[in-house]
Fold these 2 entries.
Entry 1:
Amino acid sequence: MDAQALSLNNTIEKLNSNVLNMLSERGKNIFFPKLGILAQSAQAKGKTINATIGEAVEDDGTSMHLPEFDALVNMPTANIFPYAPSFGKPELRTLWKESIYHKNPSLKDTVISNPIATNGLTHGLSMSGYMFANDGDTILLSNHYWENYNLIFENSYGAKVSTFELFKSGGFNLADFSKKLNEVEGEKIITPLNFPNNPAGYTPLTAEIKSIVAEIKKVADTGKKVIVIIDDAYFGLVYEDNVFTESIFVELANLSENVLAVKLDGPTKEDYVWGFRVGFMTYAIKGGTTELYEALENKTAGAIRGNISNISQLSQSLLHKIYSAPTYEDSKKKKYAILKNRYTILRDEISKTKYAEYFSPLPFNSGYFMCVEPKKGLVAEEIRKHLLEKYSTGIIVLGNVIRLAFSAVPQDKIPELVENIYKACIDLDK
Ligand SMILES: Cc1ncc(COP(=O)(O)O)c(C=O)c1O
């Protein structure tokens, strides 16, 4: 093992040996190189002649670039063209950390790591797999999960996906979550929790969140090491009362020295910048110190450097700029209102009694999506094909469940969307 990785492991072991045991073999071996090219480049910064960096520089010291870009982006070249640090742009990391506290006031003064920039949440999920999942480890997910989790955890890291039933009697199925949590073999449990959920569009109610956290605490108290990967992709898009509006991160960040909370979040869905590819990965554990977090940040940035090097400088700079704009909060509220309106129309429409003959909605209260289950033995995939052919309507089918992205449908088309599904069901029921 490299001496730099060993030194990080020693620090982690000294501060909380449970965290060392949570790391995968890859996680144990990785480090962010402090020596070598990066260290030598850092030492040469500001010197009269600097022949260290792997970028091209104009004679006046600015980034070499093609002039066609000038009219397109109104920012200093240093915020557009150079590589960003593997940890992310420092000023954006600082702003994002502040925003985590702002959006999650229950965190109060809990010490959390600095967020590390990832290439969207997908990459954060992948880096979580890198850091914590060994071949054969179980990844406990709800039965309604984003299909990419398989590619990330199973195909890339050789882990095994196991599921609990998300719903029972119109709410979170605590009994099955607890059962499956306790059935995970070995010393370590890795469980990604995604609220608002894709595909179901469900966020647990405040009381349910407390029960979920209590179950995690119980299993951690038996000595198991629990890594909760919190996929907050749709954070903030909650449309009903009594639903938990903060991230479950706030309840886990200071829960137990056996529970590591790994928060994945970012502007992708929250700020409507899907193609920017910026996300963040932030750690918290009871008793966590800056020194412990720096060791984890170093390892994570090392994994990022060895994977994709760093995240888009341009995207990070654009985000930093808009987060400082005085109109930002207001603009965001307006977009939220549009989505909430679509949600409300769909919720009211789909609950009309005539539809209950052919399909029923799964619980939903947040996010971009909701799901319906066909009845009378109808097959979701046949409904989907029929909708495309006869009603010019596209939906997603997952198993025998239909997912509707109300985030993508104008409000005046939402009644028609539901009516089309109904008509397709009637056609197929003949
Ligand atoms: C639950 C969930 N997590 C993560 C992502 C990916 O986010 P990003 O585009 O930031 O990689 C998605 C995107 O669909 C998602 O639904």
Note: The radius of gyration is 23 Å.
Entry 2:
Amino acid sequence: MQILHPFAGSVQQYAEQLADPDCYRPGYCPQCQTKHPLTAHGFYTRTLIDAAFDGIIRVRRYLCQACQRTVSLLPEFVLPYLRSSLTVIALFLIARLLGGQTLQSAAQTAPPPMPYQRGQFWIRRFRHQAAALCVALAAVAKPTPAPDFVSRALLMLESRGWIAAHRFLFASLRCHLLGWPRSLTPAGRRAALSPAGAPA
Ligand SMILES: [Zn+2]
């Protein structure tokens, strides 16, 4: 299971803080609710593309001794199963869907340079998710008059702040800002016997 690492600084600051397993050690198990601090259980690595970073980051894992399941602490600047940081994705979606830029020009607005097809994939997922986001975000952001769900969801994300909105959606509702990949069940848990999908 993935939960959020309550940290929103830079990628470098995140990497430095990872050295201390006690820093954000969960005090209870989010899966079986046992009230006992979890045991540090190594790391897994994932790729990350941010404005000034393109490489591998480590994600800390903890083990619950009661249910023997692991919990990983994902930094707030990434979305599960997506390589690009939330900031890069947000810049692209705003440029294309609110700013009316072409795909190519939006792809240049959101650094670093990327194939515009990657942005098209985000747009598809965002359009699909927009109505649900408007409903969910109404709890933390003022509904904004807008001609359609896509614009309204973007305006609400802008007013709340993308990372704060993601924290609320993910931590409280297990909702993925761009929707969970189809290989996963609604709360983001892997469906039985489903192969691990590569991040897009
Ligand atoms: Zn447990």
Note: The pocket of zinc ion is lined by residues 29, 31-32, 34, 64, 66-67, 69 (CB under 6 Å).
